[in-house]
Amino acid sequence: MASNVNPTVRRRRLGQELRRLRELKGMTAEEVAERLLVSQSKISRLENGRRSISQRDVRDLCGVYEVEDHRIVDSLMQMAKDSRQQGWWHSFGDIPYSVYIGLETDAASLRVYDPQVVPGLLQTRQYAEALITGALPETAATDVEKRVQVRLRRQERITAPDNPLRLWTVMDEAALRRVVGNRSLMRDQLEQLVEQSQLPHVTVQVIPFEMGAHPGLNGQYAILEFPDAADSSVVYIEGVTSDLYLEKANDVQKYSVMYEHLRAQALNPDQSRQFIADIAKEYAR
């Protein structure tokens, strides 16, 4: 989906602009909330793009910020209208990480570290199904299938002939050794991983067990970067009941530096490819 109609990205851009207008006015979120008789949390959610923004919200906020240029107001109103459109993922119903999917859909590059499993964008269908079933044992078969279909649809960013997603992933050896499904399934998964790692826009690196302690031991995270300079990078950390999105420059910088350390400590791409291929052969025995 193009960035000019992606509702998630539209909400982020609109929220950033509304925050800028508030700061130009010298007002705090609490002061704005008091003026509009709403909660401070609503103002915060509107500004960080986590909540749908209605045209009425935009009109009221522009009134508080005394925006006199009708062209600015009209532009913001149009952005609010666009942000309420539905992305492709909405056709699958209620997806817990829909905000992330919206960001990933519009991202230019994605850096992922995963200590436990093969990243979703590089999973085979069988691996994804076995993984989701094992991780969510109380999930109905129909919901498992829906999640698998969403994952496969997301993977189209990797195979897109034009402007594919630039993916850089670092995995711990544990992700390759953990038998998800069965050994035959794992062999197929790792063989596909070797093939995908040869794509010009996909880089795969592995941190072997012998490396010992490293900066990624705190867990999985992803860094999304966007083609439009107006869209700040986002660090995404997946949770059990809720997810965390970090957008402050200082936070993104810290995770980016940590990722550079991970890349430096991992096997280089060629070594990683051979490492994965060797483990795949072990599953064939």
TrEMBL record:
Pfam families: DUF5753, HTH_31. Residues 18-73 form the HTH cro/C1-type domain. Gene3D superfamilies: lambda repressor-like DNA-binding domains. InterPro entries: Cro/C1-type_HTH (IPR001387), DUF5753 (IPR043917), Lambda_DNA-bd_dom_sf (IPR010982). This is Helix-turn-helix domain-containing protein. The lineage of its organism: Bacteria, Bacillati, Actinomycetota, Actinomycetes, Kitasatosporales.
